[in-house]
Structures are given as C-alpha cells and as structure tokens.
Amino acid sequence: MSTPSSYDPIAEMYHTLWADWYLPAAMPALDRLFFARVPAGSEVLDVCCGSGHVTKELIRRGYRVTGVDASEGLIAIAKREMPNGDWRVGDARHLHLNARYAAALSTFDSLNHVLTPEELQQIFQGVRGALQPGGLFAFDMNLDEAYRADMRRWTVDVNDTTVSLVRGSYEPSSKKACTELIWFVRNERDDLWRQYRSAVEQRSYTQTEILSALEKTGFREIECMTAEEAGMTAELAFGRIFITTRA
What we know:
Blueprint: H1 11-17, H2 22-35, E1 43-47, H3 53-60, E2 64-69, H4 72-81, E3 86-89, E4 101-106, H5 117-130, E5 131-142, H6 144-148, E6 155-158, E7 162-171, E8 176-187, E9 192-203, H7 207-216, E10 220-226, H8 227-230, E11 240-246
Parallel strand pairs: 1-2, 1-4, 2-3, 4-5
Antiparallel strand pairs: 5-11, 6-7, 7-8, 8-9, 10-11
C-alpha cells in the first residue's frame, strides 16, 4: 500500500488553481529544450506528472506518454481528464518500469519535493535506468532565491463554490520550504462548507549539488541555464533553472 501524498487532500484545489499557470509561462523553454529535440511519436516518461497539466500537452503533440506521480488523488484526476493515458501511482525515488523511453521530463519544480541529496540521486538513477541510451532528460528546479521571494504571504482565490488560501515559508538554514494550502468547498445540497488542508514540503538545492548528483548517476552532456535564459516568462522564472542531460 502506498504512503498517502500531501497532495491527496487538496488534489482538486491543485488541479484547478494551477491549470493555466505553469505551462503558458514555461512553453518557450519547453519548446526549445524538449519539443525541438524529441520527435513526436516518441515514448516519453513524465516524472511527477501531477494531474497532467504538462502531460496533456505532450499527448496533444503526439508523444506516447507514461505519467508517474506519488499522489493517488492527482493521478485519479489525470485519469478522469485523459482516460486513455498511461497513468501510474508511484514514488519517483523507486521507479520500476519495464519500458525504455526516448526521453523523460519533470516540470514545475517537482524534484524539489525530494528532501535529501541522496533521494535526489535515487531519482536520477531511476530515470537514467528508464531511458534508452542517449535518451534526453529535461527538468527544472528552484534554487534558494526562489523560496526567499515567497515567504509568509497568503494568496487567496475566491469564487461562489470554493475559497483557496496558499502561503509559503522557508528556513534558509535547513533549506526547507513549506507551502500551506487550505481549501473550502461549498456543498450545494446543504450550503455548508467543507475544509481541506495540507502542507507540502520542498527543499532547495544548489546548482552544484544538482549537477553532482547527475554526474554520479552517469548522465552526460549536461546543460544548465536560468529559466530566463531558457525563455520562461512571468514570476515563475525567478530563481528557477532548467537542466537537460542525456543517459
């Protein structure tokens, strides 16, 4: 039995709030670093795919995609939205896949959810093992400055049936970040509101730590650039890097 994910209680909130946030900002970077390098029709692994915001674009472009995420709630939404997709509930630290993929992708700072350098290296090892020789791996991660810019400010979204509150905090000494999420949903049958809440942890890594972990697992042709250099737009680019490498 899998361990519940911190995203499970607020899966619908996550899917709704961030449906049109990351992908439009990241599209120029993904076009340059991934789509231009991986032919349509290729088999692609989407690591930490969430509810499938980016996976949907991969499928739209003709890739044959396997989406893996630790959250049963997010995978359930992905299956609901794209029932013909290949969706797997699984911990990225322990990838066990029979297929070998032409490319792998991990977006929206998903790998920052891994809280130790050893576990980050485990993910890289698993991804490399799932790739064909020479297969491309592209991903983004947040550095320290990204978390320092978003500390203890509530962001509130209100409509007729839901109220969403999100607040980030960060401890530079431990490099640990926490996003607190509270979601109120109105039941239309009895007009009562139900509360859901969760706290999602992340960790910042230095560029040196990330590149070292890739090298230790045998990745080569490593390229690293800031999100701005990659072409990403909006505030999501601040403190973010994109990395591409080959198995």
